[in-house]
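Please go through the sequence and fold tokens given here and tell me how the chain folds. Record follows.
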Amino acid sequence: MILIIIMFILSYLLGAMVPGFWIGKIFYHKDIRDEGSGNIGTTNSFRVLGPVPGTITLLLDLLKGTVAGLLPLIFHSNINPMIIGIAAIIGHTFSIWIKFKGGKAVATSAGVLLAYNPQFFFIIVVVFILMLLLTSMVSVSSMIGFTVAVIISFYYKDIILIIVAITLTGFVFYRHRSNIKRILNGTESTIPFGLYYMLHKK
């Protein structure tokens, strides 16, 4: 039990790391919470800081979820990695370093999935990229990607994966509720490529 508590704490602290916020503060003297969408994640890091720091933020957010999911393996524990990984997702969303606020946990959640089932992870990544190329919207691609994750999880007949996939999808939709309003109003931000962007480019 003590080992499980230790892994939960470590997982939370890993998830609570805020690379986008720290990179902005240290190297660009910007608080990305005050610019763009105000989010600390990949999309806003790209928007406010540029492609290089945005990519670094993506990789680090993904990595912390993966490492958190691998903690049971590191500590030789039989507990399901998805259960420990949830603490990292909570950490990213409610980070101790920024007054228990945080991001939408899409990359961190994906990192946990990578640690648990790489094949499942890569299928979802392919879906995400395809949707991004069609919609030019990270928010739409993220929500559709996680929705597909729920559908595919039933194929694996893994009850833990199914429960976590459904929970994460609901969480992702909840965290994107402001994006959903903008999507319905036609005011959601787009990335500078993809079919939707090309069709609406003036």
In short: Residues 117-202 form one domain. The first helix runs from residue 2 to 16. The mean pLDDT is 93.
